[in-house]
Amino acid sequence: MTRAVEHEYDVVVLGAGPVGENVVDRARAAGLSVAVVESELVGGECSYWACMPSKALLRPAIARSDARKVPGLRQLVQGPLDAAAVLAHRDYYVSDWKDDGAVGWLDSTGAHLYRGHGRLSGPRRVAVESSEGERHLLTARHAVAVCTGTRAALPELPGLTGARPWTSREATSAHRVPDRLVVVGGGVVAAEMATAWQALGSHVTVLVRGQGLLPRMEPFVGEHIADALTERGADVRTGASVTAVVRDGGTGPVTVVLEGGDHVEGDEVLFATGRTPRTEDIGLETVGLEPGSWLPVDDSLRVTGSDWLYAVGDVNHRALMTHQGKYQARIAGAAIAARAAGDSGLETDRWGAHAATADHAAVPQVVFTDPEAASVGLSFAEAERAGHRARAVDLDLSAVAGAGLYADGYRGHARMVVDLDRETVLGVTLVGPGIGELLHSATIAVAGEVPIDRLWHAVPAYPTLSEAWLRLLEAYRDGTGTS
């Protein structure tokens, strides 16, 4: 075996997805030398198999649905989507799964890219082996940042491996529309991919083990989305536990067997049943950590018990969303730079420059279904479990003047959760067409802990959907629509 070539850098980053890229950006801006190790495509899961391709598939579906609710347009958009054009549009947004552009950006920062599998080989050391057998040993003077993300978690079920199921990767990169698609799961991936592939022409069956879609959001969200999927012809089944999958030879139709003996047939089956950290083969055991584990961190994203190892993004299990990972990366990069400069005055207090406080209190999320769903902060149930004396204020969004202009027969719902002791907003949840663009105002209210009496002076433009804020505040003042 060839001897490893040794190199030294200030910072070594494992993983060149959006999170790793942001750590690089902040570290290089501080003048630190950086090495980046990537075993797949520079740009990561979000760019090629998650955020970007899924939204490219969903946007035409949502735009057509919105147009069908507008007089003068609905008669022009009654036909099916051009599936080939939609898939080609998706391919454009993922650069045909080529990372030249992302590599060009990374090169422009002055960071050094190592392609290959990276593994920790002791404190501050990363061994890299390329597919061509080249070996490098990287030493970090100050920090190693693990930004390897997550992968789809598949349950242990009879016949599943041989059935060649779709995971989120296959669901966002497939080049053929299956006549029948069975979706197992009730979370974000399941709801979004059911929406996308139904719009592209698949007959979709959704099998949810629990009692509804999107169980981590307010209950009304999943109800709205399930109703919409059902109205468009999908079969949404709750309380449906899968016990086995049958597919002869891994090709042809697939049969999904349910508890109780019932079964569902499809041409493809998507398992959207959670995520697991990509830490199983990165050498954690060489630094006293358990392979395959989530990595606990402090608010500066430094791994518990270490003074050099950082875990940023999905791998720390704080908030499994790209925008939160990028937020963490900015915090981690700044903290690494400050410590490298010998700065003992890190701002790690609440809302300090080196503390990822928003991961505790103000995590925003948009689910790009039809209708869209969005939330930030705590649900009412979460607020109560956390010990807050809270009130939930509900609003039928059809009461907002801008809703009727946005779409005939607009259907949607909003909930604002208020801390009664401090009179600040703990959380906001919305479901309805176009509401994703309302979320940032809610995020500011939650993250900024803006008092209710001050929110009265943030006047929403008329007639827009943002007038929902005024109606929620009125309902809170009048004691109506509350739980």
Give a verbal description of the structure.
Helices cover 30% and strands 24% of the residues. The protein has 483 residues and is α/β, with parallel strands linked by helices. It folds into three domains: 5-43 and 99-151 and 277-358, FAD/NAD(P)-binding domain (3-Layer(bba) Sandwich); 161-273, FAD/NAD(P)-binding domain (3-Layer(bba) Sandwich), CATH 3.50.50; 371-478, FAD/NAD-linked reductase, C-terminal dimerisation domain (Enolase-like, domain 1, 2-Layer Sandwich), CATH 3.30.390. Strands 1, 2, 3, 4, 5, 6 and 16 form a seven-stranded mixed sheet that branches. Strands 17-18-21-20-19 form a five-stranded antiparallel sheet, with helices on both faces. The longest helix has 19 residues, at 322-340. The protein is globular.
What is the count of helical runs? 15
Helix residue percentage:
25-40%
Category by helix and strand content: alpha/beta
Largest sheet, if any?
A: 7 strands, mixed
The residue ranges in which pLDDT falls below 50 over 5 or more consecutive positions are: none
CATH topology call of the largest domain: FAD/NAD(P)-binding domain
- Count of discrete domains: 3
What fraction of residues sit in β-strands?
15-25%
What CATH architecture label of the largest domain applies? 3-Layer(bba) Sandwich
CATH superfamily membership of the largest domain, which one? Answer: FAD/NAD(P)-binding domain
Looking at how many chains there are and whether they match, the oligomeric state comes to: single chain
Global geometry = globular
Total beta strand runs: 21
* Rounded mean pLDDT score: 96
Rg over CA atoms, rounded to whole Å, is 24 Å
First-residue to last-residue Cα separation: 68 Å
Q: In the CATH hierarchy, what is the class of the largest domain?
A: Alpha Beta
InterPro entries: Class-I_Pyr_Nuc-Dis_Oxidored, FAD/NAD-bd_sf, FAD/NAD-binding_dom, FAD/NAD-linked_Rdtase_dimer_sf, Pyr_nuc-diS_OxRdtase, Pyr_nucl-diS_OxRdtase_dimer
EC number: 1.-.-.-
Domain FAD/NAD(P)-binding: 9-324
Protein name: Dihydrolipoyl dehydrogenase family protein
